Fold this sequence. Notes:
CATH 2.40.50.100, 5 strands, 29% strand, globular, Mo/tungstate-bd_C_term_dom
Amino acid sequence: MPRKEQGWITFQSSEEERNLLEQYCQESQRSKTEVLRELVRGLTQQWQKISQNSPSVSEVKSPVPSNYQVLGISARNNIRGKVKQVLIGDITAEVIVEIAPNVEIVSVITKSSVERFAIAPGKEVCVVIKSSDVMIAVEH
């Protein structure tokens, strides 16, 4: 069984996403591993460009009072991105986050979370993926 310590990454995808990956692999005559590695490397390059133009965490003044403790998170799949679109329903909202040019992740969260964190197009967020859950994190 694959283990995280060995560098394995597992995630769930829709049938449409799996079919798209299969088709791309067949047409490019490359394995899924090669394609996904290339995607991750591309994200790494994008992240380096973004982080060079952004202030470091220590330079950002937090609106959280100093007596509050910042919490870590156990989910290892944390991807920074920018909110592209928010579709609000009666109870839930669909948040579309662009993590790289033309690469989007969609999260369904509560409408109250969107309001509480002031999630809107253009806002920098962190997409947190744990198993089949896709959550949104924001810096306070």
